[in-house]
């Protein structure tokens, strides 16, 4: 439980929407059919071997009427490897490799096998789905799709109690130019929210095994 809370709070302290009811966001319109989008995402996923980028994360805390910003590096390598490296204002590391998750701060590191927790399996899959473009096939969520001139927006609403306890909603913003994730906004039930924005994205550059070590 401590690992799960640590992961959720410090690694992806994820964003909130006050109402759990999905509404058409400003500047977007409902996508009548997602067939073409799903086909496009699948094609992009097949051609993408790796992703690296900078990120900025802003956590808004409702009770404190405050926000905390942090920056770092993000790495993804096909099929199931993710590294999120916080560099400022604190150092913190999250590595997801297959069924293993490692979290490390300046004092110590912890490792958890997601196969021992269905909830952690679901959280792990959400992250992988965002990178693979397979969010429409995740049975833990209902997905609604919207588009604007330059972006797609996928709204994921949890359908089982375990996921509802963690998230109110997850929003995935995709750049139409290359189907890459430009922003993640994930919702908690309590009112806090965090936006994670990706920049300086690079695809299919070599990424070493050492980046994704969970030892």
Mind explaining what this structure looks like?
The chain is of the alpha+beta class and 215 residues long. It has a single domain (2-205), classed as Lipoprotein localisation LolA/LolB/LppX (outer membrane lipoprotein receptor (LolB), chain A), CATH 2.50.20.10. It contains four helices and twelve strands. The chain starts with a helix and ends in a 12-residue tail after the last strand. Mean pLDDT is 83; it is low at 1-22.
Helix content: 10-25%
Record the strand order, biggest sheet. 1-8-9-10-11-12-2-3-4-5-6-7
Strand content: 35-45%
The CATH C-level name is: Mainly Beta
Please identify, by name, the CATH architecture. Clam
**Class by alpha and beta content:** alpha+beta
Series of H and E elements: HEHEEEEEEHEEHEEE
Q: Largest sheet at a glance?
A: 12 strands, antiparallel
Number of helices: 4
* Overall form: globular
Query: What is the CATH H-level superfamily?
Result: Lipoprotein localisation LolA/LolB/LppX
Q: Measured on Cα atoms, how large is the radius of gyration? A: 16 Å
What is the fold-level CATH name, i.e. the topology? outer membrane lipoprotein receptor (LolB), chain A
Uncertain regions: pLDDT < 50 for 5+ in a row? 1-22
The beta-strand count equals 12
What is the average per-residue confidence, as pLDDT, rounded to a whole number? 83
Count of domains:
1
Q: In whole angstroms, how far apart are the ends?
A: 20 Å
């Amino acid at each position: 439980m401590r690992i799960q809370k640590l992961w959720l709070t410090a690694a992806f302290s994820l964003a909130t929407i006050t109402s759990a009811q999905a509404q058409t966001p400003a500047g977007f319109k409902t996508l009548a059919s997602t067939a073409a989008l799903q086909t496009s995402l699948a094609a992009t996923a097949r051609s993408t071997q790796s992703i690296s980028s900078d990120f900025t994360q802003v956590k808004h805390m409702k009770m404190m009427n405050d926000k905390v910003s942090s920056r770092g590096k993000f790495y993804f390598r096909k099929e199931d490897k993710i590294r999120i490296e916080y560099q400022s204002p604190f150092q913190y590391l999250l590595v997801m490799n297959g069924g293993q998750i490692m979290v490390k701060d300046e004092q110590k590191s912890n490792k958890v096998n997601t196969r021992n927790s269905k909830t952690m399996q679901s959280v792990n899959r959400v992250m992988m789905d965002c990178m693979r473009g397979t969010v429409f096939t995740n049975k833990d969520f209902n997905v609604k799709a919207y588009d604007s001139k330059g972006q797609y927006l996928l709204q994921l609403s949890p359908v089982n109690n375990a996921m509802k306890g963690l998230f109110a909603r997850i929003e995935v913003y995709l750049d139409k130019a290359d189907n890459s994730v430009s922003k993640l906004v994930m919702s908690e039930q309590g009112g806090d929210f965090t936006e994670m924005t990706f920049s300086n994205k690079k695809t299919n550059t070599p990424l070493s095994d050492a980046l994704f070590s969970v030892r």
